[in-house]
Design brief:
The structure holds three protein chains of three kinds.
Chain A: H1 2-25, E1 32-38, H2 40-56, E2 60-65, H3 69-77, E3 83-86, H4 92-100, E4 105-119, E5 127-129, H5 130-138, E6 155-159, H6 164-174, E7 190-192, H7 195-204, E8 208-213, E9 222-223, E10 225-227, H8 239-243, E11 250-258, H9 263-272, H10 275-283
Parallel strand pairs in A: 1-2, 1-3, 5-10, 6-7, 6-8
Antiparallel strand pairs in A: 3-11, 4-8, 4-9, 4-11
Chain B: H1 2-38, H2 40-44, H3 47-50, E1 55-56, E2 61-62, H4 65-96, H5 99-114, H6 117-135, H7 144-169, H8 172-180, H9 185-196, H10 198-213, H11 217-222, H12 243-250, H13 259-297
Antiparallel strand pairs in B: 1-2
Helix pairs in contact in B: 1-13, 4-7, 4-10, 5-7, 6-7, 7-10, 8-9, 10-13, 12-13
Chain C: H1 2-40, H2 46-50, E1 53-54, E2 59-60, H3 63-94, H4 99-113, H5 116-130, H6 137-162, H7 165-173, H8 178-207, H9 210-213, H10 235-244, H11 251-282
Antiparallel strand pairs in C: 1-2
The chains are: A alpha/beta, B mainly alpha, C mainly alpha.
């Protein structure tokens, strides 16, 4: 019994020691807490923005969580977060649910993003048309030799269905932007739980093709130049080609709030649209809004 | 003094009794919650649609068959690994290894049981999947096979420890009798001892199955999560999507109360019922074996 | 003569096969531990363990994950240990062998078999939404406690049952009530076995990811949690996140996190084993 008491005492001491560096480091009491949740595409960007903002504003604490655009919007509708990150616009369903919950979501475009189509560096294919990419992902094209590559089976990599990137890719690339097109991903598409999963597989699998935000593409992977028609021009994604519209697969990245934001959340969102924050956006491989 | 002692005693006894019933309360509570949130799925989605072959929830395709077959094929593969290695190791530890080796091997196998599943998934992505791809010349290493190998490893400690306990419980007299009749040690193990521990070994296997079918993080990281109907022989070397990975990957995104939410809880209900069935079967086997043993020995 | 030659040949082949099977089971375990240790050791330093993460978690330390796991383990212990031990006492000392007791045992076996992600679903439905605790240490601990309960009950019951009946008989013959007997004689004797079971149960809770995914885990928190209603980072979730969610994460940090988790989990395993063997040596029967 006595040993148990000593053990319990030690645990309590250990735990309270763990929390004391926190008190020592913040001289001003933390007065505001902003909760930020949603898109995995944006999670690292949101984290970098939060870190810089907190370094400059001592009274504010921002927590960042991923889970996918769908997760963030769901949390906003459940009223458990202040700002939802989404790499796609809210769907009609979600907007209806918001109205049903008495919430008027407000949308902010905080950045733009190019969706890069990526392959293993050993893959000889360098360019594809949108139609070819659509056919690859819907299962019509099965082998790299059909698009000018080696005789290898194509392994399709994708993000999970809760990812805004996935939904955007479905609408813009597989369905070529046609709302009446009902083509779906081929069932044997690997739905990997994260961008890193896609990157890991691409790094060592020459059969694979994947897509993700440009900010997630490491320099050792090969980016495909995308063309709208089979004669070209084939364009590589970059800040320039997104801003002048020549790269066909780019999108806005959003932050949503429930109603017009006030106080700390408003200040934070205003700061995100400032040049200083947009420089962070560019540093991370996204496209700053002009 | 006597009155307060009996009154205090009564209170404590009541508290302990309540705590004793708590296990039943929790099982019922979990079942009730799963029913409450999962049954609406049956109302919102037609049964025919639930038994369809396409799972794509964001476009309202709620076919559960690919998920079911995914879980089944990974579990079957896992048992093909766990049963021979688990029972073989248990036999080795209980019957063949010298005393000092037993004391080393037992904790070592228990160690495997303590390894967090996310860690094995982590090694699976970095080491196992690339190895499988190059070694077996597959399009990708993220397959049911990778999941089965890791799940088999996770199930082995369960199979080993329960089988080993069962072998230990076989009376020494059985072995001595067999040896006295001229059998070799090897023959004794396979024709006397192991059959005598049959019910324990069966329980071990069933609990191993339960462990494998319920594993989440490992399969989510290494099986590729492609909702393919896994009914062909070479589905084992193709990517699959399990029920558990589906819940873990999609639960975060669903709005409370949506159809997708209800269907995910329905999948949870299916998993609960499967593990219930496996456990009831395992304990019935043990119960029946015990009754038979009692009849024989009386 | 030939027959016995055949048989001994079969036996030797058989034993060799069993040895091979056991080696194939055991060697990979050691290989995994050694591999993670070798890859992760360079990352371990006092700053790694005691600092907050920085630069999008690609640098700095994993303090919040370590503290989070400690909080969750403590929270799980707070709920599951008293309840589990009390339930075990009921089963070992009070319950009669009737249908109700059989039902309780079946319930315990079932709780042990429920998939961890179903616990996560249950925790989400009950604690996060219905009871409105939100994504918090409280919700996650409660979920993990129910998951840990069967382990503790089984181990504690076995420990209590292993105390010889003689202890109880003597105590009652000397005038002790049932509870006094339990509290002063049986429990202390069974304590090492109970503690072993508790530590093994908590070890599993510390390593689980699925139950805390939607009930308490957070990707990044700027400060350590200071109330049970805060969400928290945790080692297994952090390993999942650093190995799959963050681009350009240095391998060292991933392996370092894996190593810390491994040491935490194995450390508990070692402590439990040591308690168990020392108790066996000191046993009074």
């Amino acid at each position: 019994m006595k040993r148990l008491a000593i053990f319990a005492l030690l645990m309590v001491l250990l735990v309270s020691c763990g929390s004391s560096p926190n008190q020592a480091s913040s001289r001003t009491p933390v007065s505001v807490y902003i909760q930020n949740k949603g898109s995995d595409t944006m999670v690292n960007l949101a984290l970098a923005l939060a870190e810089r903002y907190q370094a400059e504003h001592a009274g504010v604490s921002i927590s960042v969580t991923g889970g996918g655009s769908g997760t963030g919007i769901a949390a906003l509708l459940n009223k458990t977060v202040d700002i939802a990150n989404a790499s796609r616009a809210m769907t009609v369903d979600e907007e209806n649910q918001a109205t049903a919950s008495g919430i008027q979501p407000v949308e902010f475009v905080v950045s733009r993003d190019a969706i890069a189509v990526i392959v293993n560096p050993a893959n000889p294919v360098s360019q594809l048309t949108l139609q070819q990419i659509s056919d690859i992902y819907s299962g019509k094209i099965d082998n790299w030799s059909q698009v000018g590559g080696e005789d290898r089976p194509i392994v399709r990599l994708s993000r999970e269905t809760n990812s805004g990137t996935h939904v955007y890719f479905l609408q813009t690339v597989i369905r070529l932007g046609d709302p009446n097109n009902k083509t779906l991903f081929s069932t044997d598409t690997l739905l990997l739980p994260s961008s890193e999963g896609i990157v890991n597989e691409l790094r060592q699998n020459p059969n694979a093709i994947g897509y993700d935000g440009l900010g997630y593409v490491p320099s050792d992977l090969k980016v495909i130049a995308v063309g709208t028609a089979s004669g070209g021009p084939y364009v590589l994604p970059s800040i320039a080609t997104v801003n002048d519209g020549t790269y066909p697969v780019s999108r806005d990245l959003y932050m949503y709030t429930a109603g017009q934001p006030t106080g700390a959340a408003r200040a934070y969102l205003d700061w995100i649209l400032s040049p200083e924050a947009q420089q962070i956006v560019a540093d991370l491989g996204f496209v700053p809004i002009k | 003094m006597g009155k307060s002692r009996t009154w205090g005693e009564a209170v404590i006894t009541a508290v302990i009794k309540t705590c004793g019933y708590s296990a039943i309360v929790f099982v019922v509570l979990i079942f009730f919650f799963l029913l409450r949130e999962g049954l609406p799925a049956l109302a919102e989605v037609r049964l025919a649609d639930l038994l369809a072959v396409r799972w794509y929830p964001i476009e309202n395709y709620f076919g559960l068959l690919p998920l079911l077959t995914g879980s089944l094929i990974v579990t079957a593969g896992a048992m093909l690994v766990a049963i021979p290695f688990g029972i073989g190791t248990a036999v080795f530890i209980a019957e063949v290894a010298p005393r000092w080796m037993r004391e080393v091997l037992k904790p070592l196998v228990e160690l495997l049981g303590g390894l967090p599943s996310v860690m094995l998934g982590f090694l699976g992505i970095l080491v196992l999947a690339p190895f499988l791809r190059t070694f077996l010349n597959l399009p990708t290493g993220l397959t049911a096979l990778a999941g089965s190998l890791l799940l088999g490893a996770i199930a082995i400690p369960t199979v080993v420890s329960i089988t080993e306990d069962a072998l230990d419980a076989v009376p020494q007299g059985y072995r001595e009798g067999a040896l006295a009749l001229g059998a070799t040690k090897w023959q004794t193990i396979w024709r006397v001892t192991l059959p005598a521990a049959r019910s324990g070994a069966l329980t071990a296997v069933m609990l191993g199955v339960g462990r494998a079918i319920g594993e989440t993080m490992t399969v989510m990281m290494v099986t590729g999560n492609a909702p393919v109907l896994a009914v062909h022989l070479n589905s084992i070397v193709s990517p699959v999507r399990t029920m558990t990975a589906t819940i873990a990957a999609e639960m975060g995104e669903v709005a409370n109360g949506s159809t997708h939410y209800h269907v995910l809880f329905f999948i949870g209900l299916v998993l609960f019922v499967i593990s219930l069935a496996v456990n009831v079967a395992a304990s019935t086997v043990v119960f029946r074996q015990k009754k038979r043993a009692e009849r024989v020995l009386s | 003569m030939k027959r016995s030659l055949d048989r001994s040949l079969v036996q030797r082949a058989g034993f060799s096969l069993l040895t091979l099977v056991t080696l194939m089971t055991v060697v990979p375990i050691l290989a995994v531990v050694v591999y993670i240790a070798r890859q992760g050791l360079p990352a371990i330093s006092w700053s790694f363990l005691a600092q907050m993460p920085g630069d999008g978690m690609r640098a700095g330390g994993i303090l919040p994950a370590i503290v989070g796991t400690l909080y969750l383990t403590l929270g799980t212990a707070v709920f599951s240990v008293p309840l589990g031990i009390a339930a075990a006492i009921y089963l070992a000392e009070y319950a009669r062998e009737n249908w109700l007791t059989r039902l309780i045992r079946i319930a315990i076996i079932n709780l042990a078999g429920i998939p961890s992600v179903v616990y996560g679903l249950f925790g989400l439905g009950l604690f996060v939404f219905f009871l409105k605790f939100g994504t918090s240490i409280l919700s996650a601990s409660l979920t993990l406690s129910i998951m840990t309960l069967p382990v503790i009950i089984s181990a504690a019951e076995e420990a209590l049952r292993s105390v010889p009946q003689a202890f109880r008989t003597v105590s009652i013959s000397l005038g002790g009530t049932r509870w006094q007997t339990i509290r002063r004689i049986i429990l202390p004797q069974a304590l090492p076995g109970i503690i072993t079971g508790v530590i093994l149960g908590l070890e599993r809770a510390a390593g689980e990811t699925a139950p805390i995914l939607f009930t308490g885990a957070a990707f990044f928190l700027p400060r350590l949690p200071n109330s049970p209603f805060d969400a928290t980072m945790a080692l297994p979730y952090h390993l999942f996140v650093t190995s799959t969610q963050v681009p350009n994460m240095p391998f060292q940090i991933q392996y370092g996190t894996a190593l810390v988790l491994l040491v935490f989990v194995l450390g508990m395993n070692v402590i439990a084993t040591v308690i168990r063997s020392r108790a066996r040596a000191k046993r009074q029967w």
